[in-house]
Backbone:
């Protein structure tokens, strides 16, 4: 043990068996709950050699270490700028405690040194009383524009006092991983290593991953259910949330394949919806938006609600709470929408004029978070006219934060990465798990306050008692109104009454 500890090396010089592009992901266990499946998968690359003797060393809480072998695979490709080769290693970690912090290092068999260390926590897949925090964005590269957000994400991802449970990068990683003969992908993975080696980095393919049947993307990432789905769709359970990833790129390229995505999605959502008592939150994400306002993106903002209508129908049928996307290089938060119409919801905060509190929405909320940083889409462009379903539009570099506080409260924040300020937020509050128009019965405590956590500065001192008082006033007015109608009807002849009803 003393010998192993003495081999730790905190700076890595690139050589034949040096380990780089280190990143982790949630394993199949988060989908299957099979104890034989991995909880955390560790991935890393070597440059020149297969290095089959490289391995992951996991430090356990009792002071011992566990040696975890890694499988190695050679990947070769020819691109317009030259040939590319790398050796991809993967190691599966099982039988660890959830929400406990672990340290690990990776052995360099050529130098006989350990490289790292890195730290991670595996979030509990079972419901708990803990608040869960997730980072989400699409469309990020490692250019000068993207570096601003990468540095900000690195800062909050490594703040262990407020642990991030997972990061969701929903398409368009690096902007063509295969460019510069694969070097662009390598550079991006190196740029995010301090993030992705410490927090599970979950990905979805976008339109910039499609080359050669997504081969470079699939070489670098393996999400749960990879053997059967090749990253095209998967789902994971984290605490009281069910996350679902779907690929809508293949249906764009081959529309006849949309039915395959819809069939898989329905099966997954049906099972998740039946388990709402345990996991009330269902969040779906994909690269392509279904609702957005930017008319310069005519192929998406004008067509996707029709193109992906079968997907929207399933989101509505199974009462999905949120649908996240990127692709359009803006931030756009939309109201609960179904078939292009803003659907019913309640705002329990009477003084809120920014639509920051959405209770019991009667359709999913659609949010585009596609502007963390990309050199072809600089921040600060002028705002444009939005559609009637849009609640907030922003064009400065940002990422999103999902904070699931409990079974009834979820906080979404859009955070500007230039200074960490909150540019937008919304509280999603639920007292029911199905869309039931005109039903607003609440099991919330009468004096329970909405507490805004993380970095929202606006006070939330109003209590639900004001909401209940408002409802009482509305009920009294309704009683008076219908009493008046009743007296009026008593003096109307039947034919006039029939005409009024028909009208």
Residues:
């Amino acid at each position: 043990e003393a010998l192993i500890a003495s081999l730790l090396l905190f700076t890595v010089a690139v050589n034949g068996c040096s380990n780089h592009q280190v990143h982790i992901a949630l394993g199949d266990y988060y989908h299957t709950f099979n104890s034989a499946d991995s909880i955390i998968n560790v991935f890393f690359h070597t440059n020149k050699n297969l290095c089959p003797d490289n391995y992951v060393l996991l430090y356990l809480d009792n002071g011992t270490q566990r040696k975890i072998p890694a499988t190695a695979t050679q990947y070769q490709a020819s691109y317009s700028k030259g040939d590319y080769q790398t050796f991809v290693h993967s190691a599966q970690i099982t039988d660890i405690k959830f929400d406990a912090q672990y340290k690990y290092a990776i052995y360099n068999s050529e130098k006989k040194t350990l490289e790292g260390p890195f730290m991670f926590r595996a979030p509990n897949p079972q419901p708990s009383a803990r608040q869960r925090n997730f980072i989400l964005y699409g469309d990020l590269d490692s250019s000068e524009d993207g570096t601003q957000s990468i540095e900000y994400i690195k800062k909050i991802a490594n703040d262990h006092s407020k642990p991030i449970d997972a990061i969701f990068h929903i398409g368009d990683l690096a902007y063509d991983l295969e460019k510069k003969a694969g070097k662009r992908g390598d550079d991006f993975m190196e740029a995010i290593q301090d993030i992705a080696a410490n927090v599970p980095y979950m990905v979805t393919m976008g339109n910039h991953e499609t080359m050669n049947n997504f081969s470079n993307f699939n070489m670098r990432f393996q999400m749960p259910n990879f053997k059967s789905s090749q990253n095209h769709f998967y789902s994971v359970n984290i605490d009281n949330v069910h996350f679902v990833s779907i690929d809508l790129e293949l249906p764009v390229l081959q529309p006849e394949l949309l039915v395959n995505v819809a069939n898989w999605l329905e099966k997954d959502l049906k099972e998740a919806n039946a388990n709402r008592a345990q996991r009330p939150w269902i969040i779906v994400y994909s690269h392509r938006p279904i609702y957005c306002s930017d008319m310069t993106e005519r192929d998406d903002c004008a067509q996707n609600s029709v193109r992906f209508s079968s997907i929207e129908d399933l989101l509505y049928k199974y009462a999905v709470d949120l649908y996240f996307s990127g692709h359009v290089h803006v931030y756009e938060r939309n109201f609960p929408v179904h078939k292009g119409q803003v659907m019913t919801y309640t705002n329990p905060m009477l003084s809120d004029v920014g639509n920051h509190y959405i209770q019991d929405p009667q359709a999913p909320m659609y949010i585009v978070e596609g502007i963390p940083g990309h050199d072809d889409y600089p921040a600060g462009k002028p705002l444009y006219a939005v559609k009637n379903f849009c609640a907030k539009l922003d064009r400065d570099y940002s990422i999103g934060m999902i904070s699931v506080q409990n079974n009834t409260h979820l906080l979404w924040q859009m955070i500007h990465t230039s200074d960490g300020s909150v540019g937008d937020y919304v509280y999603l509050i639920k007292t029911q798990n199905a869309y039931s128009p005109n039903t607003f019965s609440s099991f919330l405590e009468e004096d329970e306050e909405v507490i805004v956590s993380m970095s929202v500065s606006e006070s939330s001192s109003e209590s639900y008692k004001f909401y209940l008082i408002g409802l009482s006033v509305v009920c009294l007015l309704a009683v008076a109104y219908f009493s008046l109608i009743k007296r009026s009807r008593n003096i109307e002849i039947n034919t006039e009454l029939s005409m009024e009803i028909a009208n």
